[in-house]
């Protein structure tokens, strides 16, 4: 038996080595893709910053690269992006955490198995549908409640974006809460804590690393959202924190320039790579912060 199987061992080693290389290649695809995207953004951004000062790009309060009087300050695009993101988070985070707490601590497993998939259906709706819903339904409704609200504004897409982020926040947070050992719940109940006190003072702190991951992912998702703000927020870059007026986000500007009206290779065309690089660095920074927060709180509670 040993002699008969001996010739097959080199062949098995070759097959196993090939499988290892294939798995390593699959694992490196995401890294190579990220490096490729970063390389393209940096290469074309260098051409942009040869004509535009980085200081002007970071400090100028006007963004008019498609006008005769050209200004290349990214602050108006950043303010529009942060404004819609903030509105979305004010909706998604409290509602998402309350839903996660309810699904994790209050409902029976049979009910949870029905409600959770229904909630996650919100994530399957195309974002262009959310955008037109914000423009044709939410905005007219808000105009009846808020005098002076413009037809394009930051409030309407921000609210709709918040509901779009609900499945992301609630599902990931609920999974993190479900992973908390049941002994913590039993110990809190033995000390006389109510179900609400157990959820907010025991379960959520113990699942804080997972909750923070859902929050960081929601922020990154909101910053990178395109179609909702492109349809309902307008295309007027302005440095403002007023949610009642039209704004323009980074992704909306990229869509505007990418429609083919700007000559490829021109300074105006290269602006999309500069703002795209800014968006990439912003998302990368958020994910890095989320990673270290997750690691810190996981070590703390472990």
From TrEMBL:
<feature type="transmembrane region" description="Helical">
    <location>
        <begin position="114"/>
        <end position="133"/>
    </location>
</feature>
<feature type="transmembrane region" description="Helical">
    <location>
        <begin position="145"/>
        <end position="169"/>
    </location>
</feature>
<dbReference type="InterPro" id="IPR035906">
    <property type="entry name" value="MetI-like_sf"/>
</dbReference>
<keyword id="KW-0472">Membrane</keyword>
<dbReference type="InterPro" id="IPR000515">
    <property type="entry name" value="MetI-like"/>
</dbReference>
<protein>
    <recommendedName>
        <fullName>Phosphate transport system permease protein</fullName>
    </recommendedName>
</protein>
<keyword id="KW-0813">Transport</keyword>
<keyword id="KW-1133">Transmembrane helix</keyword>
<keyword id="KW-1003">Cell membrane</keyword>
<keyword id="KW-0592">Phosphate transport</keyword>
<feature type="transmembrane region" description="Helical">
    <location>
        <begin position="21"/>
        <end position="43"/>
    </location>
</feature>
<comment type="function">
    <text>Part of the binding-protein-dependent transport system for phosphate; probably responsible for the translocation of the substrate across the membrane.</text>
</comment>
<feature type="transmembrane region" description="Helical">
    <location>
        <begin position="74"/>
        <end position="102"/>
    </location>
</feature>
<feature type="transmembrane region" description="Helical">
    <location>
        <begin position="202"/>
        <end position="223"/>
    </location>
</feature>
<feature type="transmembrane region" description="Helical">
    <location>
        <begin position="272"/>
        <end position="293"/>
    </location>
</feature>
<dbReference type="InterPro" id="IPR011864">
    <property type="entry name" value="Phosphate_PstC"/>
</dbReference>
<dbReference type="Pfam" id="PF00528">
    <property type="entry name" value="BPD_transp_1"/>
</dbReference>
<keyword id="KW-0812">Transmembrane</keyword>
<feature type="domain" description="ABC transmembrane type-1">
    <location>
        <begin position="78"/>
        <end position="290"/>
    </location>
</feature>
<comment type="similarity">
    <text>Belongs to the binding-protein-dependent transport system permease family. CysTW subfamily.</text>
</comment>
